[in-house]
Specification:
nine-stranded mixed beta sheet
Length: 495
């Protein structure tokens, strides 16, 4: 694993950047962490709120087993320590969107301990550069509600739909040292969560967001004072926060100032961070064990079920693809998103040879989806239809150029490849008699070039191939055309 060489050039020399991420990932489950209320995105305000979520007197929390299960499965996916005994704590603070006056979290005894995530720093050559990023812990906690400031000219309203939603807080170690590393880590973590199925990773909807801790130091010095930029909701913005906040800190330090430990917000319109409030420490929140909740005790049977339910994860799937003869770059592209990997696995299950399947999927299919603005989940062409198309290429029914035409029609109509070939008459011909007749016409129309070729200008062979294919509307079998041309061009004029 390599180290980052990212540096900020200041007036007094080079500065290193040290980054740690606290990622809040909304747990995929059938209800909230301590209530049975729904968690659907986009619901009308305050329509998904139970008496527990609203902190009505006498309401007691009951842990949602599925939320705990998903947190454990996530920990297993990053090979982290799973703590069979964990405990919930109350984090006390007062804010209008927090009806209880405290948040139930896990400070002292989290459900998941230390793990690690391997990242690649070169997408074109995934094996060339990489780094292992430590994960300090994963704990589960409930989300707060949301203040709505645009509903009334002088008042703010509160929407408690998110109140009590289960979050996993995934805390990295300060092992990240550049915007690129930070982006690669966040993308890899998101990919793992989506493979596991514990979070949908939709940053636009707020189901995954990051608090970005940044500090700077001279190379080899002790860690500097960090700031925390809250609730950043895209990989691009997280990378921008690292770059801009680090530059800001260097400017402050080189001007003789000090970095204040504080919470900041990112303004994407101005591409800058702004101070929000001084950073609280644990004692400011007056943490203590939640008296309404017993400790979580996980038995071996539960842990075994969690482990058995894990799917093939991105790194393992990539290694399997490479073992099938797929290039490292293609394997990385195909495994980056779980939906693409599932689609490709279905294509392989249909019997298509791996290398041909990877070449076609990463070039033709992904190119078409990008062009039409669709994702693979909404692909007009199914794996079964793609397998049929590639089978027609393999058996010589379609040439490469004809296959492109057929694929375009499939994208437009949703029809299968065989039907398109039949309806449009796009079948490749290997009829040597028909091909010979066309070649004779091409040669007759280009007698001067025939003479030049026979005089030693071998490069003209491609000209004759192109003219023949053009005359036959691209339907001639290129291999047969090449074979017949060699024979006919090799004959003397007299013959």
């Amino acid at each position: 694993m390599t180290e980052s060489n990212y540096r900020i050039q200041g007036e007094t020399g080079e500065w290193e950047v040290v980054v740690g991420l606290e990622v809040h990932a909304q747990v995929t489950s059938n209800a909230k962490l301590f209530s049975g209320a729904a968690t659907a995105f986009g619901a009308e305000p305050n329509t998904q709120v139970s008496l527990v979520d609203a902190a009505m007197p006498g309401m007691l929390p009951v842990p949602n087993r599925e939320c705990i299960r998903q947190a454990v499965r996530t920990g297993m996916a990053i090979e982290a320590q799973i703590n069979k005994w964990s405990r919930f704590d109350r984090k006390n603070y007062f804010y209008a969107d927090l009806p209880q006056g405290y948040q139930i979290s896990q400070l002292y005894h989290p459900i998941v301990g230390e793990g690690a995530i391997d990242i690649s720093l070169d997408e074109k050559n995934p094996d060339a550069a990489g780094k292992r990023i430590g994960v300090e812990r994963i704990h589960v906690e409930q989300d707060a509600g949301k203040l709505m400031h645009d509903q009334h000219p002088t008042q703010s309203y509160v929407d408690l739909n998110r109140s009590g939603v289960a979050l996993m807080e995934i805390v990295s170690k300060p092992d990240l040292a550049s915007p690129a590393e930070t982006g690669a880590y966040l993308r890899k973590l998101r990919s793992i969560l989506r493979y596991v199925g514990s979070c949908d990773g939709n940053m636009e909807e707020g189901s995954m967001r990051a608090d970005v801790n940044v500090s700077v130091r001279k190379p080899g010095d002790e860690l500097g004072t960090r700031t925390e930029t809250k609730n950043v909701n895209s990989v691009r913005f997280v990378m921008a926060v690292v770059e801009q906040e680090a530059k800001r800190q260097v400017e402050v330090l080189e001007a003789g100032g000090k970095i204040q430990q504080e919470t900041r917000l990112y303004d994407p319109d101005r591409n800058e961070t702004r101070s929000m409030r001084s950073k609280e420490d644990a004692h400011d929140y007056r943490y203590f064990p939640d008296p309404d909740l017993l400790p979580l005790v996980l038995d071996d049977a539960f842990l075994a079920e969690c482990r058995a339910s894990l799917p093939e994860l991105p790194d393992a799937k990539r290694a399997r693809y490479e073992a099938l003869g797929i290039t490292a770059y293609q394997a990385t592209v195909l495994t980056a998103e779980v939906e693409a990997a599932r689609w490709f696995d279905a294509l392989l299950d249909a019997g298509v040879k791996p290398a041909a399947a990877a070449n076609w999927t990463t070039s033709e299919l992904f190119g078409a989806l990008n062009r039409t603005g669709k994702d693979i989940e909404n692909s007009p062409v199914s794996p079964a239809q793609a397998a049929e198309l590639l089978g027609l290429i393999a058996d010589g029914t379609l040439s490469g150029s004809l296959a492109k035409q057929v694929f375009e029609v499939m994208l437009e109509t949703g029809d299968g490849a065989a039907k398109v070939v039949e309806d449009r008459g796009l079948k490749q011909t290997s009829d040597t008699g028909a091909i010979e007749a066309v070649i004779a016409e091409v040669m007759a129309a280009n007698a001067d070039k025939v003479a030049d070729y026979r005089g030693g200008k071998d490069k003209l062979f491609g000209f004759f191939v192109g003219q023949t294919m053009k005359a036959m509307g691209g339907k001639a079998n290129p291999a047969v055309v090449n074979e017949v041309l060699k024979g006919m061009l090799g004959k003397s004029v007299a013959s």
